[in-house]
Write a structure and sequence with these properties.
The chain has 230 residues and is an alpha+beta fold. It is built from eight helices and ten strands. The protein has two domains: 135 residues, 60s Ribosomal Protein L30, Chain: A (2-Layer Sandwich), CATH 3.30.1330; 73 residues, Alpha-Beta Plaits. The longest helix has 18 residues. The chain starts with 5 loop residues before the first helix and ends with a strand.
Amino acid sequence: MNAVTLKEKKNISYKSCFDVIGPVMIGPSSSHTAGALAIGLVANKLFKGLPKRVVVKYYESFAETHKGHGTDFAIISGILGFATDDSRVPDAIKIAESQGIDITFLEESGDSPVGHPNTADIYLEDDSRSIRTVGISVGGGLIKVKHIEIDGFSLNPQGSLPIMIAISSRNNLELELRRIFKKYEVDINNSTNLEKDGIYLYQFDLDSQLSGEARKELENLSDIANIIIL
């Protein structure tokens, strides 16, 4: 398992003591296995279903060690929606291929496009849609999401989870979203609003996880084509 540098530690937001200890997981490495699975799970939540094709590009440390550290099966486990302690994790590639998913792993020789040694760039597609996300594993099973492409939009979040994305035809949705966050005492670290062809995307980097009640209220908002909570 790669050591986390002092500089990296200063930039990690630990939410609880369990973030320091690390997750309950199928090994061998919290950075290269549990963190990789978490990046795959982001792709799963963005795509909302099983893709027909998966392309994973690795950079730097991930490119050098992904085979021996279980990064391949970890990322595919996340794409399939498995938890870190799911007994199926080591067999995830075989399970995915049995469901007709074409999988490609690529080792990139250059530097990480987001400046971190544990970088995975994941692309999913089927016959009608595609998503892309770039994530980094920062240690202890924690990740940051540095890039997202979805529904024709391109985003560069601050990185730390949770992140909420809403896509809607409503140009006034931001105030309602902020009202819900305030109601449930969830602080906003950063926000981005984008528009394309009359469709609006609202992205919020949040300070804490949303409760079940908050999630339900968000999901019940009208005229939302897609809502994603990472």
